[in-house]
Amino acid sequence: MKNIRLNLGCGSDIKENCINVDKIKLNGVDIVWDLDKYPYPFEDNSIDRIFAFHILEHVKDYEKTMGELNRIMKKNGALYIRVPHFSSAIANSEFHHRFFCFTNSFTNKRLFKTSTDADFIDYFGFKLKYKKLRFEKGYLFWNYLIEPLVELISPQLYEATILKGLFPARELFVMLIKVKDN
Length: 182
Known about the structure:
Largest sheet: 7 strands, mixed
Helix content: 10-25%
CATH topology: Rossmann fold
Number of strands: 7
CATH class: Alpha Beta
Number of domains: 1
CATH architecture: 3-Layer(aba) Sandwich
Structural class: alpha/beta
Distance between the termini: 24 Å
Strand content: 25-35%
Number of helices: 5
Shape: globular
C-alpha cells in the first residue's frame, strides 16, 4: 500500500515524496487549493501523513479545517503542525485569525468546560503525541540555553510568567495521531 503524504500550504517549502498543496501556483506546487474551501480534493481516509506548517493560524474556520484533516487522514496517520507561538513577533499579523500557546492549544481543555470531561475525549478525532515550544536560534545565542530549560522546567510556567516577554518562543510544534473518525 502506498504511503501518501501531504504538504499543505507549502509555499516555496517543497517536500519530496509529498503532494505539495498551496493557494498559489509556485514552482513545485502539485495542487493549487484554497484551504478555506471545503471539502478538500482528497478521498476519505486516504492520507498517511500531513505536514501543516504555519497554516492553521490563517484558516478562517479552524474547526472545519481540523474536521477535514481528520476526514482525509487514515487511522493512525500522523499530523505534524507548526504554528507561531503567541509571544512571537510573527504571530502578530493581520493575516492570522488565531493565536496558539503551549498550555491550552491542541488540548480538549479549550473545548470543554471541565478538565475532567476533556481528559477522556480526543481532539477532533486526534490524540496528542508530542508538543514542544521552539525558540529562534541564530544570533539569539541565549535561546540555545532557554529552549532546553523551558522544556525541562515547565512550558506552562514559562507562559504564565514574564519569561514569555523576555524570551519569546518562535513556534509550537505538535504531532497528532488520528484515532477515530470525527
